[in-house]
């Protein structure tokens, strides 16, 4: 069996020295995961259910970032000749290659009836970009589609590489059609490698369900789709750009969150919260015998957010006056530059006979998003069975819930969700429009919300921006300009993007450290307050 351990090392070049990229991989320890725990300030002293929102945000100090190893898996089956799809894919790959820095590496795998590694993992120096770009331009179509061969080869390229420590990795798999040879790729074990899939087909032969299943089978993977038509223009570059923006802004790896119920002492009586339910999308959850729940999120992008709703049961407490009690702890485990971090935060609440606080808008909005997603999933199931009347009824109900929701201030996430449901409703009117637009749109929405990560939804990529990060917004504008004028020299490098971001936000380099110090100080003060409260 062939071993792909010929990946190029990250050499120090003039480009590295100029940009600061690639020479400090093992010293990159700036990434942090900020945490905010939203809940009522006080609650009844009787037994009660009590929801809590845990919000995690990826942040980084300085301009250093993790280098990323990407394997682009490209469909060159015969159907790629139609609608200029191969040409469009080559154009999108030119944008992708241009954005990479000398701290990044890329390997190209092509597949049809067979799979072939077009190039090994190559460090993206200026010369390598030109050479890899030529290899992509030389791709030609052939017969049939064996997605499993291409995916397995990409997995082997990443698993066999010599340089792994402190480096992020991902597979970007692009296809326009249905697998008609080999085993089903959606059942291939993917381990800890994120796989992002992209569909750009149409008609009866296009089966996005398999592409969505592959993405969902990986940690943090997403399914996106691009619009293609008979013209020579498309939005394929914009669709690719959104995934790439995330991969080029990974701040932590292997994020795991441990939510633990807390035991506390009220007067002389011990009391302990009970975790009834944890909602965190379709990420892997495990529950220990002591009630602790662990969630594995994988990589986290700069300014990307993960939200967790924790439904607690708080036991009754006998008190004569208000008292503060601990309810949960949130421990974050993650890796930065090969170094494991372990940070803990504890949340408390005041138990009182006369509670007065209300749920926060953020918590209510997330609960509403989860309920809406449940209706979207039910609507997809009905549409797949051909029951479009029931599918539209479910989405109309979801519309009503979103319209009836009241918040103290405008809520951008709910506004985006309204736009999404309205669009989906239009795509579920009949079988024809569902096949063409409804199915890929709905599957993108499902995986995007399940992962709390942006996924491009065809020509709605500009309008529906749920979970998009600022870097994604920047890349979107650049990719749109590139589609108008596909000259790689007009595309700014990721290093230039980072400089522009630093200039626009001078405090961005130090803010994560300051926030972490504040979190530590707040936790210490809360512990002191608990001691004083319980000792009164």
UniProtKB/TrEMBL annotation:
Chain intervals for the UniProt region annotation (Disordered): 483-505
Domain called VWFA: residue spans: 69-244
Domain of life per record: Eukaryota
Protein name: VWFA domain-containing protein
């Amino acid at each position: 069996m062939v071993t792909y351990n010929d990946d190029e090392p990250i050499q120090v070049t003039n480009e590295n020295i100029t940009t600061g990229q690639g020479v400090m991989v093992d010293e990159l320890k700036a990434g942090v995961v900020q945490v905010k725990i939203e809940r009522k300030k006080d609650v009844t002293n009787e037994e009660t259910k009590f929801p809590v929102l845990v919000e995690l945000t990826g942040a980084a100090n300085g301009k250093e970032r993790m280098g990323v190893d990407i394997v682009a898996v490209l469909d060159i089956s015969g159907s790629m000749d139609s609608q200029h799809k191969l040409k469009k894919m080559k154009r999108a790959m030119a944008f992708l290659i241009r954005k990479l820095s000398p701290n990044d590496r890329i390997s190209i795998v092509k597949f049809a009836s067979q799979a072939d590694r077009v190039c090994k993992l190559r460090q993206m120096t200026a010369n390598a970009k030109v050479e890899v770009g030529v290899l992509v331009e030389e791709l030609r179509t052939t017969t049939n589609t064996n997605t499993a061969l291409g995916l397995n080869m990409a997995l082997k390229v990443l698993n066999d590489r010599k340089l792994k420590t402190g480096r992020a990795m991902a597979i970007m798999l692009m296809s326009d059609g249905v697998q008609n040879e080999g085993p089903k790729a959606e059942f291939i074990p993917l381990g800890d490698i994120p796989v992002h899939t992209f569909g750009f087909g149409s008609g009866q032969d296009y089966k996005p369900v398999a592409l969505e299943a592959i993405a969902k089978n990986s940690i943090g993977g997403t399914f996106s789709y691009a619009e293609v038509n008979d013209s020579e223009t498309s939005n394929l570059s914009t669709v690719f750009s959104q995934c790439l923006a995330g991969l080029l802004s990974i701040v932590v790896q292997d994020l795991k969150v441990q939510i633990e119920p807390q035991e506390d002492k009220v007067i002389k009586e011990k009391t302990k919260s009970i975790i009834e339910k944890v909602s965190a999308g379709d990420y892997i959850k495990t529950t220990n015998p002591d009630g602790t729940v662990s969630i594995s999120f994988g990589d986290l992008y700069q300014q990307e957010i993960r939200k967790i709703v924790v439904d607690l049961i708080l036991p009754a407490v006998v008190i004569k006056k208000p008292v503060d009690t601990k309810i949960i702890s949130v421990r974050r485990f993650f890796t930065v530059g090969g170094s494991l971090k372990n940070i803990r935060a504890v949340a408390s609440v005041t138990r009182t006979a006369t509670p007065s606080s209300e749920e926060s808008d953020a918590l209510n909005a997330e609960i509403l998003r989860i309920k809406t997603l449940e209706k979207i999933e039910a609507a997809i199931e009905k549409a797949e069975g051909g029951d479009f009347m029931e599918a539209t009824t479910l989405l109309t109900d979801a519309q009503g819930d979103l319209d009836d929701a009241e918040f103290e201030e405008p809520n951008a996430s709910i506004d985006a969700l309204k736009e999404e449901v309205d669009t989906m409703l239009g795509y579920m009117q009949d079988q024809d429009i569902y096949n063409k637009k409804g199915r890929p749109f709905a599957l993108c929405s499902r995986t995007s919300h399940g992962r709390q990560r942006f996924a491009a939804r065809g020509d709605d990529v500009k309008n529906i921006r749920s979970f998009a990060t600022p870097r994604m917004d920047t890349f979107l504008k650049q990719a749109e300009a590139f589609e108008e004028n596909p000259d790689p020299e007009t595309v700014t490098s990721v290093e230039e993007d980072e400089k522009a971001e630093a200039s626009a936000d001078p405090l961005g380099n130090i803010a994560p450290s300051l926030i972490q110090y504040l979190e530590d100080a707040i936790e210490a003060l809360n512990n002191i307050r608990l001691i004083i409260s319980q000792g009164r």
